[in-house]
User: What shape does this take?
Amino acid sequence: MINQTNNVKMVVNLGTKPTIKTVTGGRKMARFSVAAIEPEAETGKKIIKWYSVISWGSVADMAERCLEKGKRVMVCGHLVTKTWTDKKGIERTRKEILATHLVLLHSGTRSTLPNAA
Assistant: This one.
């Protein structure tokens, strides 16, 4: 049975063009933000929630070539938590979505970007 306890699948709008870094060994990492519009529980008023997304390898390559600010995309992956101590000695935590699959959703068409290698 597949473990489904930490899966993320969101249809969102790209908030920023991906920032690309190449790490040792030539592997690429893409980092970008996405915005989800969600109704507020009590009032139903639409609110925007921002999420940070990272991807590696072939998914990062495709993100670099295909993603632009404002595009609608489905992000699939899982949630990761990073913890570190800053220069002042304060422990910090950041949650990000590690994207293993992206699907472009625009102009009534779908373009599937590959799973992470």
Observations:
- The mean pLDDT is 86.
- Residues 8-106 form a domain with the OB fold (Dihydrolipoamide Acetyltransferase, E2P) fold (CATH 2.40.50.140).
- The two ends are 22 Å apart (CA to CA).
- The helical segments are 57-66.
